[in-house]
Amino acid sequence: VLTLRDRPVQDIMTPRTVVFSLNVAARVGEIREQEDIYYHSRIPVFDRDADDVVGMVHRRDLMAAMARQQFDATMESMMGPIDFVAGTMGIDR
């Protein structure tokens, strides 16, 4: 029996070094050729560096912007809030 109560969130988190993310200033036209945007439904958006996550953009919103030819739209204009979870918090929370 798997007991989630006893396991911290960090046990199931994806390491930052393998997370695909986008810069807040990146434009739709600049990223549309990056294959990784098609493999992830939610993409973290960072500001100064990869540790400075400020939001998240949904793949469906990127695809919609491409379909509407909104190639100048930035990730900042498209991103939504992101929930931050302490790695030490229990999985069952």
UniProtKB/TrEMBL annotation:
Taxonomic lineage from the root: unclassified sequences, metagenomes, ecological metagenomes
Residue ranges that the Swiss-Prot or TrEMBL entry lists as coiled coil: none
Organism: marine metagenome
UniProt-listed Pfam families: CBS
Listed PANTHER family: HEMOLYSIN-RELATED, UPF0053 PROTEIN SLL1254
Keyword Repeat applies: yes
Annotated keywords: CBS domain, Repeat
Name listed for the protein in its UniProt record: CBS domain-containing protein
All residue ranges annotated as the CBS domain in the record: 13-73
Keyword presence, Protein biosynthesis: no
InterPro entries for this protein: CBS_dom, CBS_dom_sf
Cellular component terms (Gene Ontology): plasma membrane
